[in-house]
Amino acid sequence: MSPEVLAAVLAEIPANEWLEATIEAAPGSITAEKADAWRRAGIDRVSLGVQSFAARELARTGRKHTAEIAAADVGILRAAGIESINIDLIAGLPGQTEASWRESLEWVERIDAPHVSVYMLEVDQDSRLGREMLLGGVRYGAADVPSDDRVADFYEIAVERLARAGVARYEISNFARPGFESRHNLKYWRREAYLGFGADAHSFDGTWRWQNAESAAGYVENPAPADRSMVDRTMADPVGERFFLGLRLSEGIEGDWAPFEDAIERFLADGLLERSGSRLRLTSRGVLLSNEVFAEFVGVAAQAT
Predict the structure, then answer these.
(1) If 0-12 CB within 10 Å is exposed, 13-18 middle and 19+ buried, where does residue 298 land?
(2) Whether 205 and 242 share a structural domain
(3) In whole angstroms, what is the distance from residue 89 CA to residue 93 CA?
(4) Structural domain contains residue 99
(5) Which pLDDT value is given to residue 221?
(6) pLDDT tens digit string along 127-152?
(7) What's the average model confidence in pLDDT over 11-20?
(8) In terms of domains, do 54 and 163 share one?
(9) Which of 24, 99, 287, 301 sits CB 3.0–4.6 Å from 240 for a disulfide?
(10) What share of residues in the chain are helix, strand, coil (percent, to 5)?
């Protein structure tokens, strides 16, 4: 989307005095002119899908940028007055080693990124690498993907390294300097309402969750926010969601947990949860096993309702 078209779309938003406006961008696609246009249109946060700063990993995943290009992009954004910059990294890429992972983290420190997202490689049918791994094949680097234990090690290295640099974890996958946390990310984890526009966009009004038509053609045919444009609409589970969304935050969740006391006590004894008064938080070990914790609480919540 050209900066001119983007500005025209954003201008249609009523009373567009937003608290934060984020755009995602591919490294190597940013110019000074584009960054200036984004800033004039109200964009004040840019998320760069770097994935890795290691040349070999970038080549194997088909990425066209280099570490130097990504660093130059950060400089362009800052020159345009955009200071809130996020760097996406993936732990578990084919051929990734502790040395290459530390190289990426060194680059994060070098460019002084105020926000970093660390995602662990997901294995699913939606990517050719994921499909190859599920089939037990070797193409696309599937045989060189680090083990789950190694990926967990990489994640813990990132937690410790970023914390030393003043970029603290505030959510399982997100790290930031104070004041640079992503406002829209926090809305999701705190179960605040949001509206999604466009193909496959999701929305939540506090009670219902719904999804728009997945294809652009399907959405354009019925773009109005009416029932006919929704392909999926379900009632939210406020209790279960508080656990598997709220516990992702380092601040944890607060409330009356009497119906879940047995599960809580078990996780406290196993060192996966810690409690301070009525507030629950995942421990460092709990973060690595968070899916098991979430699944337990969602199951208990379903039985309670």
Answers:
(1) middle
(2) no
(3) 10
(4) yes
(5) 81
(6) 555 555 554 555 555 567 788 899 99
(7) 82
(8) yes
(9) 301
(10) 45, 20, 35
